[in-house]
Amino acid sequence: MNQSNELDVDIGHQHIVIQRRYEALGALNDLLIALWFLVGSFFFLNESLIDSGTWLFIVGSGQLIIKPVIKLTGLVHVGRVFKKQSSKSDGCNTY
């Protein structure tokens, strides 16, 4: 009896390239978030820089929203590539 596991889908090299690009973008986003919050924290130690520190916290918080957007975009992109590969190999369109 041959059962397919939907979680173990191999779409080859293209999947790996796409996934690595989105992971790199996510890592860059995480690095920038950490930077904004770290610098913003130091700014709070100086009375004259508190406003700038607040803005860095706002920017960092906004980038926290970007993190799941990057993840979801990557998943959609890989899904579209998989559908395209499936339709080519099956000879029919699968939606």
List keywords for this structure.
single chain; 95 residues; mainly alpha; 2 helices; rod-shaped
Helix-strand blueprint:
Elements: H1 13-43, H2 50-90
Helix pairs in contact: 1-2
Task: Describe the model.
With 95 residues, the protein is mainly α. The protein has a domain at 35-86. The mean pLDDT is 83. The protein is rod-shaped, with a radius of gyration of 21 Å. The protein has two helices and no strands. Helix 1 packs antiparallel against helix 2.
The residue ranges in which pLDDT falls below 50 over 5 or more consecutive positions are none
Helix content: over 70%
Oligomer type = single chain
Biggest β-sheet description? none
Summarize, please.
By secondary structure, the chain is an all-alpha fold.
